[in-house]
Amino acid sequence: MTSNTLSQRIRQHQYLRDLRNKLLYLHKMLLETERIAYEQVSGRVSNGELLQLVIAHEQFAWLHRISEVVVQVDEMLEADEPISLDDFQKLITDVRTLIVPLETGNTFERKYYNALQREPAAVLAHAEISRFLTSKV
Question: What is the spatial distance between Cα 91 and Cα 114, in angstroms, rounded to a whole number?
């Protein structure tokens, strides 16, 4: 293994750790917007009730897409084998594609768009991860 390859792997791992943290923060902000919207209709919920809603309620189902990407990142970081450049680039492309809010898009894209219209903190989290995804590894 060359030092360049080792250096590249170290940068990839750091990039993935940073991406994971930014995805988790974005997820947290989006979850908060959904919690607020849910509570406006159904009343206040406890943390335990919120967890059950996130797992099983249709209103929160769209957020599972972000959770699934976080799991992918975790699996890459914990893998015994080195991350292939193709797998790494595919993940980055998938995240870039995922976080495109569209008013008339698929369910995720519409709900993401609407959440960004309601919550400034979600807009800031979106801007941060978008900026990060344009940075070099």
Answer: 25
